[in-house]
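Q: A reviewer asked whether we had any structural model of the full assembly, not just the individual parts. We don't, so I'm hoping you can provide one. Inputs are below.
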Amino acid sequence: MATIEQAPPPSPPVPPGPPEPAGHPPAGTGTSNTKLAIWLFLSSDCLFFGAFISAYLLYRSRHQTGPTPKDVYSIPFTSVSSFVLLMSSLTMVLALAAIQRGDLRRLRIWLLATALLGSVFIGGQIFEFTEFARKGLSLDTNLFSSTFFVLTGFHGAHVTIGIIWLISLWGLATQGRLRQGDAEKVEVAGLYWHFVDVVWIVIFTVVYLIPAPK
Amino acid sequence: MSTATETHTPVPVRTPVLLRRPKKTTGFWSWFTTVDHKKIGILYACTALIFFVVGGLEALLIRLQLAQPNGNVLTASQYNQLFTMHGTTMVFLLGMPLSVAFANYLVPLMIGARDVAFPRLNAFGYFGFVLGGMFLYSSFLLGGAPNGGWFGYTPLTSTPISLGALPGRGPDFWTIGLIIVGIASTTGAINIIVTALNMRAPGMTLMRIPVFVWMMLVTAFLTLFALPIITVALIMVFFDRNFGTAFFLPTKGGDPLLYQHLFWLFGHPEVYILILPGMGVVSEVLPVFSRKPLFGYPVVVFSGIAIGFLGWGVWAHHMFTTGLGPVAISAFSLSTMLIAIPTGVKIFNWLATVYKGAVRLTTAMYFALGFIAMFTIGGLSGVSLAIVPADTQQHDSYFVVAHFHYVLFGGLVFGLFSGFYYWYPKVFGRMLNERLGKLNFWTMLVGFNLTFFPMHLLGIYGMPRRTYRYPSGFGWDTLNMIATIGGFLIAVSVLIFIVNAIVSRRRGAIAGPDPWDGRTIEWSIPSPPPEYNFVEIPEIQARDDYWHYKYTEDDDGMLVPLPSGGADNVHNAAVTRLAAAPTHPIHMPSPSFYPLLVAVALPILGYAAVFHSKWYAFVLLPIGALTLAFGVYAWAVEPATADEETH
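A: Here is a predicted structure for the entire assembly that you could use as a starting point for your response.
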């Protein structure tokens, strides 16, 4: 434990502006308060999605009336939208790299690109939901539809919040209120964004790709 | 999103002034905008005590109804609402927030910090809790309170209103209200973890932080991981009731047992969320009043961590009678017995701390010793419930009621009352009256045992829980009457405490910075502490750092007070900590409206959800959403420290 104090890792660039309240020691964990907080929030969110995914797995092959997963899934379509979401993680990384270099023009471009790719994913999800509804699968049709819509719906809500967050950062950047020293703000948004992507990888694998047991 | 915004905004230019930033840090209205962890701690404690009184009155009504066979005080419907709200209140609106009150006030003081890591998020956590609680209680006026038990078992709670399993909108208020309180608790937990890990003074290594901070750290991790699970269960119940899903409705293939798994996967860690803070408090109180260091500090800490981990592997012992099968039942029975080991280790550590100490029997010490005795009884009945055949017999009987009240009342409430008497002088600068305190203790101890000990016997004699009346002739009559009398004695005891707290606030003896000859660094600063806590952030040399400023040991291991006024650096440092005014400006976070604003949005959205089929939901929804959006954005662009104060 003591080693934490003995060797503080190099701290990130100090943002210009008012000094830290006097006297605080270097962060005890070497991770800034904000980053530690978002990691803790995301760890909590893991349990949130974990519980929904568990419910999905428990119910997926039970008491099927109405359309089953096999009847409604379009794996090629969802693969493309998943790919789009994964690419948004790449643009997110590029946005962070840009602000860390102080390249504010590319920061704005990549933030907007990430938000756009996320929006494409959400558009795909809306299309998918309406398509399912057209095939007769709505929230209250059967256990599969309930667990599916609630799980992917809450994931979609997470992505939407992420898009709003990214656009807000982009807005700050266009006003010149997001500078190199604020890289951590982009990094924190990025952690959230990557988390939402990782959750989607799990959902896509477990919910779409692995067939339900008989 | 708010977490992203606690760092400084680099350029103060063009910050849109939508609401003029509050500046006042004193007076009535300052309590609505404060970000001071000490004031928020006091708010938490006062609010939780109000809910304690309300939950206690509900318990008294329950006891009045059960005092005699064929009671006529309450109808069945009222009884259902009262026992549901009693449990919900005591767990979510007393136990968790009162622990958070102590954590809020003490964690920064104990680790040598000026405030918590996220002061505004802290304020949001408080307002979310109080508004969530008021949201829950507003249900009494809006069609009936929650009436499906504090555990809200499905399919009873999840059956749609149209099918009429439970009258009223109670379960809707229950699900949404607990989600709001849960959001608040999650932010509070994140704040405590980041504060305890990142804000420690130089030299305050993890193995030097007071045990109370350790226990709150474990509690915060449990809160962080337990609440999302119940949130999912609550969302599913809400969908089942309102949107036609059938997650827990067996008629359409749903599985009520899934609810029980999700609920208890939250619910059992919740038990440790409630008891670990009490353990932390007595681990501070016992050493001070025994004039000995805590026996086996590392063992106490690691036992607490072990409880934190094992607490995740025992949830199904709440479900032994549901037919899980012999393998699962055996495993959970064993894991439940296993968790008694770290708990027992702690009890022996506390006893060894007191053993051969120079014991001072203050009220705080009385309550701490009462904690050990009562919690041990609760722990032992817990081990007996871990034995599956015994549990099958006692399940849903008053034996279980007796058990968890010994753990939660005998544990948490005795522990936190010990904390009240111990830290009140630090918070208000005046001592609580010791004579009233002793009276408070003895009435509580006697009242508590009169109320809950007979419930062991009632359970063994077969009295079931949650029944609003019982016929005479089962041998339950006398015991129930005794329990009711005990309940009123507890009420007298709490009344004595409230009188003591109010009177001592003005008339108590002046405490001075260190009335108990304390060991930890919160006693090295004035009482009440100044807004900035420490003039100079202390350099921590040892565990129980402040003790070593005051005492040393001679060659025989006897305590020798360090001469006051001596020329040693240690003493000078102690004087500096007590200095009345800082010699340099100390930048503290500024008050803010936005935590309150964001918190206000939550119950508005909550009402929109509960009444989603009514027209006014479509008025409430945009109001709530706009309030939320405005609050979050304004919070995000508002610097943590107001400009004018930084220069």
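A: Points you may want to mention in the reply: The radius of gyration of chain B is 25 Å. Confidence is low (pLDDT under 50) at residues 1-15 of chain B.
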